Amino acid sequence: MSREHTNADSVARTPTPPRRRWLKRIGVVCVVVVVGLIGLRWWWGREASQRLLAEINCCRAAGEPIFPNDFDAPLLPEGENAALVIREAAESLLPLPRELGKVVDEIIRQRAGVEQHRAEVLKIVETSAEARALIRKARSMPGADWGYRLSDLNVLGTAGPSALQDVSHSRSLARILLVAATHFHSGGNDAEAVETLRDALALAGHTAEHPLQIGQLSSIAMTELTARAAKGIAPGLRISESVVATRSAQVVPATEGQVRAFVAELLDDGAAKEALIRGMYGERMLMLQIFGQFGVAVTEESAGRSHSPLAHPLRPLCELEAARILRNVSVQAAAVREPTLEAAQARAPGPAPAGGLSGYARLFSSMSALDRILPLHYRSLADRRTAGIALAIRVYQARTGKLPETLNELVPDILSSVPASPYEITGEYTIDDFVGAGRLMP
């Protein structure tokens, strides 16, 4: 009896193992949280993908290029490709000797005139003869295929330095052309001065056909310089149908047909505008390509494809940012078509954020310049139009021997219509914008 009692006491005194219910509860909570996070991530990914696909479909419906293959234009025949001729011109001339390059820079920046560096300018004109002839040949060609295809997803890495060199060479050639045009005008050869300015404007147009946005931005700068040079020579431009002999040299005036052709080219800004818009679309595609590192669709085949929640944790965030970029660039491209800067700014989206994923992508493209494109574009339009009007006034003056009292007198014989100002704040152009103290102002 006592032994049984002793055994019962020992069993009673044996400690009961803890059940650790709190561990089970924590485990259950963790499972619930993980399942919830996976579900939330699945919903977030699905929502982001749907938003991106909706923006892609919207852009597609509007006829906008989005994916790399959308930007591959048909190859130009070698005999019609101005880019090849421009490269040949650059190889024959560039780089200029340092002292001549410095003279070009001073004249372009209006720190000095051609008279102050007559010997150097004459050397520049002589050494650039072959390059200028090639650029004139390129002017007659229908287009420029620079050989870069955005469907090559490594275009920024493999072709970046070469692409930048092409654009840099085009800028340098344009500056040399402008120096040469100023030299021809000061020497009395206005026919060659006008043709050289037309060459520079055509070179800017071919540079705008570059697939990267840097080409369009450089084209804007080249166009501005050309238009300002045209305004500079307009007051003293000699227009006649015959060569005039003087004691010192022969004066070769520009013909009215030459000047009117140049005016028409200045006022025809449609191709430059469309090239700028296509460049904006191209930079957008490159940004989407960069987001492809995080699993975002960068090809037409992968758009809208479902994916595992674990494929890339940041993919939904990137897709939402890509959708925002698609929408904003579409709006900004449409704003470029507005008639005035104020209307474009009212329509365009606000500045893109500097940080985050968008800032990361912008580091690898020219898209950071999109926020500055509108003011540059409309300033270029103003320069083109005022240069065209100034030259048209000079044609009228050469024809009638007097200045017009209003710009409407230029219509329809010289201008089809008076170009509108791209700035609402300045109002429409009037004769007072161009004529002062009884003379045509530069």
- The shape is elongated
Strand order across the biggest sheet?
1-2
* Quantity of strands, as a count: 4
How many domains? Answer: 1
Question: Roughly how many Å apart are the termini?
Answer: 129 Å
Give the integer mean of the pLDDT values.
84
Compose a concise summary of this entry.
The protein has 442 residues and is mainly alpha-helical.
Give the key terms.
442 residues, mainly alpha, two-stranded antiparallel ribbon, 4 strands, elongated
Characterise the protein shown here.
With 442 residues, the protein is an all-alpha fold. It has one domain (29-442). Helix content is 61%, strand content 2%. It is built from 16 helices and four strands. The strands form two sheets. A two-stranded antiparallel ribbon has the order 1-2. A two-stranded antiparallel sheet has the order 3-4. A hairpin with a 2-residue loop joins β3 and β4 (439-440). The N and C termini lie far apart (129 Å). Mean pLDDT is 84; it is low at 359-367.
How would the blueprint of this fold be written?
Blueprint: H1 2-13, H2 21-61, H3 82-93, H4 98-108, H5 118-127, H6 129-139, H7 155-158, H8 160-186, H9 190-207, H10 213-233, E1 244-245, E2 250-251, H11 256-267, H12 270-291, H13 315-336, H14 341-347, H15 356-362, H16 370-400, E3 435-436, E4 439-440
Antiparallel strand pairs: 1-2, 3-4
